[in-house]
Amino acid sequence: MIQHFPVMAVMLLFLGAFLVAIFGRISPVIRDGIAIITATISLILIYALIKPVMIDGQIISYWMGNWEPVNGYAIGIGYEVDALGLFFALLVVTTFWLSGVYSLGYLKNDENKMHYYTLYLMLSASVLGLVLTGDLFNMFIMIEIMTFASVALTAFRNRQAIALEAAFKYLVLGSIGSSMTLAGVALIYRVCHTLNMAQISAIIGGQFNLTTLMAFGLILSGLAVKSYIVPFHTPAADAYTAAPTSISMIFSGMVNKAGVYGIIRMVYVVFRAMDRSSLQILLVVFGAVTMFIGVTMALTQHEFKRLLAFHSISQIGYVITAIGLGTALGLNAGLFHAMNHTLFKGLLFLTAGAVLTATGTTNLDKLGGLSKKMPVTTVCFLVGAFSISGLPPFNGFASKWMIYQAIYTRAVQSGNIIFAAATVTALIVSVMTLASFIKVTQAVFFGQANPEHTDVKEVPLSMRIPMIIMAVLCVLTGVFYNVVYRFLLAPAAQAALSVRNYIDMMMNDRMTGASYSAAAGVTDIESVPASFSFWNPIVWLLLFVVIFLGVYIFMATSKSTRGRMLEGGEGYDPKYATFFSGEQEEFSQVGGSDLFWGFKTDWKGYYRIMQGLHSGIVTDYASYIVIGAAIIILVIFICMR
User: Which of these, 212, 278, 559, 583, could form a disulfide with 639 (CB 3.0-4.6 Å)?
Assistant: First the structure.
């Protein structure tokens, strides 16, 4: 019976979407009830797989319509639930269930809620289907459903000027990524005559020809678009800002993780290419650039949700860097940070939605002093801010520390300066992340209150419950990191590294001839350690030295001056002058555009370039995707033949 649970969980969500569309007009209670009940049942079905898959080590195979492999070839669509797929499925169902509960209060004043819940369930079903399927074309179909549901949800509040523009960008750029993925799938089918991922892995066997190299490059580029890796990141900021906050949480917690899952599944399992140093360097470079550009763009934002969007990009950079190392520790670290990013970034988006609901704005320059009026939201925000900044004992510290050790170990083993540079980059980015959230904390929750927000009060209980749950999880997964490692991370990483088990279980020992021989030749990159410890004095000393250098560089490049130039360059704004005594008291809240303005001024050359690149023009963004894909394909062709 349990083998039916994955398919039931996915199909139930699709069924719920249709039921909401049919019966949602009858009553708000029926509409909301269908959405929450289907999400809850799907959550229970996926959580029921933890013991057999994560603890007992089973791999659940299910063939749609009982179309099992015939004469060594898979004809039907198979669902393959190993620990890696279930790990991401757990993130998916947890995120969309919390989002659904949050939506009950958050959408109180919105119209067209029937359309919202229909799209919400379709988006959830597509992402869940993507991480559970064992069929490459079925994965593409789920990507397409995910993309178009995301576009519609981005445009949900279409009376806002940014909504339609953001949705159009998402549609165009997402379609380019999907087209690349489809082209890669077609090339794979041309070579392998099958779309089953286990059989493709057995046939290719980690050995490439020109066609499979091209297919690999196209699929990897298409998945990079869904992960928002720089330079494929451009639709993220507008989409995260324009969409309802409950959907922004899903974008950050689910949609970009679908792309990350796809990359892990392709490079570790299907193409078995992570033993190639060229691919490792390629992913690490993309990851390091992504984390740096994301955090520097976030540091200068004065719109709460847009700032969080750029931080989502930056944190995905950490994940890509870790999984690109090609080691068991790196893969564990990447998976851990992917999970933690889902929790703390989802929490931060929910707090931004609470602020928007209470005050009507997310402009950091118009906020302040909300801590006394919204204590629950403030505490939850601080937990999320401490987590993303990597402060102990929160979960962000645990996963970032694992990433630091993984990169450092790889750098020492290889003697490669690129890995060493990635270590320094990761630490400096963490310092800048903390600085960014100091700005948000001051601008939104502390400091002098805006007189326009005297009547602000805490958000409804249905919005507070998901925030409290995620805040508690941010603490528990940081304090009990070894439990998380033992029961979630290690099984998921081992599933990605043990390709033979995935192939044998999916094909049910029916493969014959050369295909099965290729499967038998699979070897693990390395075994996954049974436990993980933070307490390595040498690495702690190294961390202290690198953080000291990072802080010194940051402070040296953000020196301030007396006062601030007025617009036009004439004179100084007295608000920023240095005072000693006897000044007249006035309202002078430090807003989001004020704190660290010296950093932006001293880095004006860099930010001038970034401003030019982030032009808002779709054709420019499309060209970045093409250039990024060309780089990936070129490196793959040159270095992996």
Answer: 278
Cα–Cα distance list, 303 to 366, 557, 607 (Å): 10, 24, 17
DSSP 3-state assignment of 640?
A: coil
Cβ(299)–Cβ(432) below 8 Å: yes
Residue from 372, 387, 546, 536 nearest 450 by CA: 372
Name the pLDDT band for 532 (thresholds 50, 70, 90). Answer: low
Q: For residue range 538-591, list pLDDT tens digits in order.
A: 555 655 665 566 556 555 554 444 444 444 444 545 554 544 444 444 444 555
Query: What average pLDDT score do residues 207-229 get?
Result: 94
pLDDT at 443: 86
Q: Is 36 exposed, middle or buried (0-12, 13-18, 19+ CB in 10 A)?
A: middle
Q: How many residues does the chain have?
A: 641
Cα dihedral 366/369/375/376 (nearest 10): 20
3-state secondary structure at position 581: coil
| Cα-based distances in Å from 581 to 20, 123, 575, 584, 585 | 64, 58, 14, 9, 11
Q: Write the secondary structure of 64-98 as one string of H (helix), E (strand) and C (coil).
A: HHHCCCECCECCCCEEEECHHHHHHHHHHHHHHHH
Bridging pattern class, strands 78-81 and 564-565: unpaired
pLDDT band at 604 (very low <50, low <70, confident <90, very high): confident
Q: Band of the pLDDT at 108, cuts 50, 70, 90?
A: confident
- Residues 250/99, Cβ–Cβ less than 8 Å: yes
Would the CA dihedral through 108, 111, 116, 118 be positive or negative?
A: positive
Q: DSSP secondary structure string, 482-540?
A: HHHIIIIIHHHHHHHH-HHHHHHHHHTT---HHHHHHHHT---SSPPPS------HHHH
Look up the pTM and report it. Answer: 0.89
Instruction: Phi first, then psi: give them for residue 603, nearest 5 degrees.
Output: -105, 25
Alpha helix segments (H runs only) across 360-486:
375-388, 395-414, 417-440, 461-479, 481-484
Torsion of CA 15, 21, 25, 26, to 10 degrees: -20
